[in-house]
UniProtKB/TrEMBL annotation:
Record protein name field: non-specific protein-tyrosine kinase
Family to which the UniProt record says this protein belongs: Belongs to the CpsD/CapB family.
MF-aspect GO terms: ATP binding; non-membrane spanning protein tyrosine kinase activity
Native organism: Longicatena caecimuris
Keywords: ATP-binding, Kinase, Nucleotide-binding, Transferase, Tyrosine-protein kinase
């Protein structure tokens, strides 16, 4: 497993600690172990939430994994400053050959974070992201990984244009829906939430990003 000693600085991690507590409290029947982060459109702050939430979980758990499921506009490798030469798409292609996971999953050391964070970047560009994410291979991979990791965060594409995320949210324990106070149109957000509900995704909560009256890195968490 490759080790990257990058250093990072964060604003307002308290908001993410609250988010983590809320996720934990939303687990009534079984503990939430796999969450996916999505929103209506691009640039609303999904990957930023995934990236920061991972730090907060890594303060508590030894084995936290982030998977970049946005195979169209991947960003996690940039946020963690690591290579995206191989990743999820490559791993799925070779999954039947029992590949060595450490070839695909990178460990990133983060400042002020006791435990390293494991990151599976998106990997090689593929023409059929939907097919890969909707495949039984992806489902099986996630089932296997959830036995090995304490917590898994799935960074997803937006849902207003493409349906990749519905496949991911169906195999995760819950969905965090991101709304940007600056960018998100109310009707598009509502329609996305309805689509998620129709696809039987369990929406755990809504995170508001880019809030106007407060620091732009304040996050709120609410869902009725
Ligand atoms: N809470 C926030 N306040 C201000 N800017 C933000 C916030 N969250 C994200 N951004 C910025 O918005 C842009 C898109 O963020 P990103 O998390 O990559 O979006 P997405 O994954 O939804 O496409 C980035 O430039 C990021 O720095
Ligand atoms: Mg993103």
């Amino acid at each position: 497993m490759s080790k990257n000693k990058n250093t990072y600085k964060f604003d307002n991690m308290e908001a993410f600690r609250k988010l983590k507590t809320n996720i934990e409290f939303s687990a009534v029947e079984k503990p939430i172990k796999v969450v996916n982060i999505t929103s209506s459109c691009a640039n609303e702050g999904k990957s930023t939430v995934a990236f920061h939430l991972a730090q907060v979980y890594a303060a508590k758990y030894k084995k936290v994994l982030v998977i970049d499921c946005d195979l169209r506009r991947p960003k996690m490798h940039r946020y963690f400053q690591i290579s995206n030469q191989v990743g999820l798409s490559d791993l799925l292609v070779f999954i039947d050959k029992q590949p060595d996971l450490s070839t695909y999953i990178q460990e990133v050391t983060v400042t002020d974070c006791e435990n390293a964070i494991s990151v599976l970047t998106s990997g090689s560009k593929v023409p059929n992201p939907q097919e890969l994410l909707g495949s039984s291979k992806f489902k099986k991979l996630l089932q296997a990984l959830s036995k090995q990791y304490d917590f898994i965060i799935l960074d997803c594409p937006p849902i207003s244009m493409i349906s990749d995320t519905f496949y991911v949210s169906n195999v995760s324990d819950g969905t965090i829906f991101v709304i940007s106070m600056k960018d998100t149109k109310k009707d598009i957000a509502l329609s996305s939430i309805r689509q998620l509900e129709r696809s039987r995704s369990k929406i755990l909560g809504i995170v508001l990003t880019k809030t106007q009256n407060l620091s732009s890195y304040d996050y709120y968490y609410t869902y009725e």
